[in-house]
Amino acid sequence: MRIQKKHRRKDNKTIDTRQALFDAVLELMNRDKSFEAISLREVTREVGINPSAFYRHFPDMNTLGLELVSLSFKTLRQLLKDVRANPVQGSDVIRKSVETFVTYVLAHSRHYHFVIRARLGGVATIRAAIDSELRLLVSELSTDLARQLNTDTWSTDELKMLAELMIGSMTRIVEQLLIDNRYDQNIVELIDLGEKQLRLILLGAAQWRTHS
Amino acid sequence: MRIQKKHRRKDNKTIDTRQALFDAVLELMNRDKSFEAISLREVTREVGINPSAFYRHFPDMNTLGLELVSLSFKTLRQLLKDVRANPVQGSDVIRKSVETFVTYVLAHSRHYHFVIRARLGGVATIRAAIDSELRLLVSELSTDLARQLNTDTWSTDELKMLAELMIGSMTRIVEQLLIDNRYDQNIVELIDLGEKQLRLILLGAAQWRTHS
DNA sequence: ATAATAAGTGTACAGCTGTTGACATGTCGA
DNA sequence: TCGACATGTCAACAGCTGTACACTTATTAT
Description:
The structure is a homodimer of 212-residue chains. Chain A has 212 residues and is mainly alpha-helical. Chain A has eight helices and no strands.
């Protein structure tokens, strides 16, 4: 029995092509194509390889898309891990959180651009993958919030409701940030918007049921 | 000079075909195709006419999509007009508002399904059209809110921020309601979610700057 | 050095696409 | 009645698509 080993050239050409395929898809989406509308041949054309060579790396576009989803969320998960390990300090926690978040999103803009666009528009399997990743985020934030809020007045469902509201708000910010070059409306304005929305939500959360 | 008149058969066949083209697109999107991925030929096939006949009604798919946008928002505008003319009465205003909203959306589900999906995923021109309609909604809601809130503590930007938060929340509800047959998770739950989110937002709004 | 394997090329195929032009048919006003 | 016009059919086109198969070339382990 033969031992299966990873094949790679001395210049890592193999891995580069695979990466180039990812990049090509992201680039084409950046040029205003939805994932569904990108053809296999377009991608290989962009990379500069023969259409047949695509199959050496992925069985079809769909699985490429799915890998792109988990790849994109891996970087987001990294951000959240960093933040949790090294919590935001200082007086204005909310503002700084939004700022680091926006900075991070812009640094990986093409990944998040892909996610935002494919979340609703694309193929069912990809949509489902993104959805389950987002659900994970919501439940993670829920447990984070559970530690900070009074668990007597907050049920599990209500924590989820709050988490969804916060993530929903941030999602809208990302949408406005990345779609249609609309970041010409100053980034600072969007950070301001996100900050105020979060602040208002947390203000509401602080009053939740204590007023009744 | 000849007077141009609308041509219609006694059975209104003309208008029916046009309507049938709209319906075909909505139907195909309901079968999980993004608008961009629907071909002209598919639509005519669905209707049962020759591909060439399409051009008798629209110059291309894009303008059909644009008309579909304004058509969809026309019904939504009607809802809002109704609500404003006949405001929700009784003890639980928020709950009833969310209920009527959800009912209305479900009654025109295919239109809103189209809007939700095309808002981010589709062609640039259609995206822009939907976006400007949504901006209009936000500004309308802003002026509505201005009448109900203390304009001393609420600036125009802040009113817009609040309106965007509320509409964003409702948009998420619609997304969950219409995408992926996910309304099997009971509709009542979604109404509950929407109600609580709105309640929390308004709770935060009530405290906005009065606490400082 | 050689055999195995990974990666890429070239060619070919049937199927679908948008769009055109010439033609047929039904509807209605004059 | 008849001509104008709206609507629809039919056949054809060039172009793009995904995928298959046989092939060449590079890389690596033994």
